[in-house]
Specification:
The chain is an alpha+beta fold. The protein has helices spanning about 10-15, 65-70, 75-85, 100-105, 150-160, 165-180, 200-210, 225-235; strands spanning about 5, 20-30, 35-40, 50-55, 55-60, 90-95, 115, 140-145, 185. A seven-stranded mixed β-sheet has the order 1-6-5-4-3-2-7, covered by helices on one side. Strands 8-9 form a two-stranded antiparallel ribbon. Strand 4 and strand 5 (about 55-60) form a beta hairpin.
Length: about 240
């Protein structure tokens, strides 16, 4: 990965509260002053990293702004986390594309992480209770759904939109859960494939929002693609 000199105003750094932007912070402290940290953001799928070793003090993450080489909130948050643990960051990732970032991320697969979320005031959200299903007598018929049917075409579209493999796996896991727990009744309308699949970064934002368990409200004038987004999400 390419790194560039980090430039963040002290005002922004002091005002930053990492607990408002993160779900988890994990660290590793090794010999010779080596320090690594892995953070899980609330708003993006990929994780962020802090790397302090061999004279290098850097942060790395991947988002739309990072790929364009522009500053973002994630950079400030990572720098603030590093400062909390006593490290002044000097460099940041620059224009890291998804495959390049995934290669960089693989370097940390064998690291034994320690959860330090509580130290930064990050509380883990409690998992939502499992839905309670009650059987109701009905004259309608039900059809068991197969999550693999139609998935190949959906995955090809996600690839075209440069969705990471990790995010695609989460989408399929959610798809499997829905197909396994919600049978298709004859009085329900099956998902309808849109004539033209929705393209653009808003699709990834919408899907990530749903995977986080949040409600999604689509707002816009007529012809801006709200129905197309709805149909694409229904297909996934």
């Amino acid at each position: 990965m390419n790194f560039t000199t980090l430039s963040i105003s002290q005002t922004a750094l002091h005002a930053c509260k990492p607990e408002n932007f993160l779900n988890q912070v994990e660290t590793y402290e090794g010999k010779n002053g080596h320090f690594y940290a892995r953070v899980t953001f609330k708003d993006i799928e990929t994780k962020g990293y802090i790397y302090v070793a061999g004279g290098t003090k850097a942060i790395a993450h991947h988002c739309k702004n990072a790929e364009k080489g522009t500053s973002c909130t994630h950079t400030v948050v990572l720098t603030a986390v590093a400062k909390h643990f006593g490290h002044e960051i000097e460099h940041m990732s620059h224009k890291a594309k998804t495959p390049e970032f995934e290669t960089f991320e693989a370097n940390f697969n064998a690291v034994s992480w320690t959860d330090k979320s509580a130290e930064l005031g990050i509380s883990k959200s409690k998992p939502a209770p499992a839905p309670v299903h009650t059987s109701v007598q009905t004259a309608s018929t039900t059809t068991k759904r197969d999550a693999n049917v139609g998935w190949k075409e959906i995955q090809e579209h996600l690839d075209d939109q440069r969705f990471s493999i990790a995010l695609q796996n989460k989408i399929f896991d959610k798809r499997e859960l829905v197909h396994a727990t919600i049978p298709m009744h004859d009085y329900l309308m099956p998902p309808v494939k849109p004539d033209t699949p929705y393209n653009g970064e808003m699709l990834e934002i919408a899907i990530t929002h749903i995977l986080m368990g949040e409600h999604l409200i689509l707002v816009g004038d007529a012809g801006t693609g709200k129905d197309t987004v709805r149909l694409v999400l229904g297909q996934a």
